[in-house]
Each structure stands twice: as C-alpha cells, then as structure tokens.
Amino acid sequence: MFRFIVLTSLAALVLAELEPQPRYLEENAQERVVGGEVAKPNSWPWQISLQYQSGSSFSHTCGGSLIRRGWVMTAAHCVDTSRTWRVVLGDHNINSNEGREQYKSVSRVYIHPNWNRNNVAGGWDIALLRLSSDATLNTYVQLAQLPPSDQILPNNNNCYITGWGRTQTGGQLSALLKQAYLPTVDYQTCSSSGWWGSTVKTSMVCAGGGSNSGCQGDSGGPLNCSVNGQWVVHGVTSFVSSSGCNAYRKPTVFTRVSAYISWMNSVSI
Question: What's the CATH architecture for 35-41+144-258?
Fold first, then answer.
C-alpha cells in the first residue's frame, strides 16, 4: 500500500507560485494512482516486497530490488524507523503463497549517511538491506542489473515502474504485481519552472509527468529502464507531487542509482 507523508513547503514563494511539495510513496495511501497493468508473473524477478512485523504477521510497506544474493536496495525513508523487517523474493500475489517465494529476515539496515528524513528533496533517499541468508537464484529470483557509475539516461528513455500500489483513488491494494510505463524526463526539463524546479537534484531521475502517466509502485521499488536491449534499474522510487501521482509536469521522482554505485560497493563488499 501507499502512505503519503505530507512535508512542509520546501521553498519560498517564487513569483507567487509555491515550489511543488513532495510526498513519499509508502504504505496505506488513498491516493490517485493511474495507468499500469498486471505484470506477467515473475517478469521482474529482482522486485521484492519489503514487509514489517505487526503482531504475529507481516505487512507489505515498500518495494526494493535484489542487487546481490544477500543484498537489497530500497529507499531510505522506507526503513528509517525501528521495525522488524523481512524481504519476500519471487513474489507475484502478495496475498497468497504460490510456492515460488523466498522469505528472508533482514540482519542489518544501511541508510545513506547523508539522508535527512525531514528533507526528502535533499536527496540521498537510498538504503541497503543485508539479508540473513543469501537468496537462491532461479527462474523467479534474479539479480537486478545496475547502471555504470554516473550514467545519465536521455530524455524519453523507455522505463517501467513496478509495484503493488493502488489502481484508483480509495481503491484496493493490488494483490498482483503491476507495471506502468514511465518514460524519463531529463534533468534540464524536470528542474525547469513549471515542472519540479529546484526540488529536483542532479542525483535524481524524473519519469512520467504527462496526463496519461501512471505512478504504479511502492517507494523503494525499481525504475526499470531499457538500455541496449537489457533492463537496468536506474531509479529507486522516492516521491511524487502532493497534488497527485500523475500530476501534469510533476513526474515521479526517483533516487538516481548511478549516483550511488560507489557507496553501494563500499557497503556491500
């Protein structure tokens, strides 16, 4: 599910226009999420469900990507509270056990040291989870391919966001993994007046922003982009506009993975 946290205004009035206000994409939101379709089961085999313990059961809260057999990449704001976490790999229907899932407890959480939960637009919204044991790679569970350090995608690159988000305002959580087409928006455009302005930093990736674009997926989940015939995880879902997930010229904003390759390598060696 999604839970949107409304943040305080990030900038002063500029020509009587407020800077866009970001919201996290986490659990329990009743927010407008449009577009998308049910993914073919296990067609994004690096996608994981991040769940937290509530009583004797676990509840889905965010997405993530398996980047090494014992490591998952997600958003910092998903895991900056003290909870008992687990990761579910190979999942498609989060409401049932289909026999393909692997359940892993999280032994340690590594949040980027520069992350500030009170300033999502400051960037650094990335974390790594150390699994209690390595994942078994098979047809249903595979490692995400990450981009080379500092690679920037061109405008309008083909990408998909994936997750278990709601499909309409006040609607039900999608039990089945969904995907939505979100082409990239280059930084020059996304940071311009009338778009996200100075809220967006060069360490982020924008995708979507048109009237038909969706925002299908949880915080922490991947932005899967087609590069040279391969799917590469270029983004970690971070925030959207407080005016709606598919707000015109307010694309979904992702942590740019290629800006954090060296940090991830230093943590997960």
Answer: Beta Barrel (2.40)
Positions marked catalytic: 77, 125, 219
Find the range with the poorest average confidence among 18-22, 31-35, 168-172, 218-222.
31-35
For the record, the structure tokens of 150 come out as: 């500092």
pLDDT of residue 172: 63
The CA distance from 184 to 161, in Å, is 11
Which is the CATH superfamily of the domain at 47-143? Trypsin-like serine proteases (2.40.10.10)
Cβ contacts of residue 165 below 8 Å, gap of 6+?
1, 2, 25, 33, 173, 174, 178, 215, 216, 217, 218
| Mean pLDDT within 32-58 | 86
For the chain, give every residue range classified as CATH 2.40.10.10.
35-41+144-258, 47-143
What is the pTM (predicted TM-score) of this model?
0.87
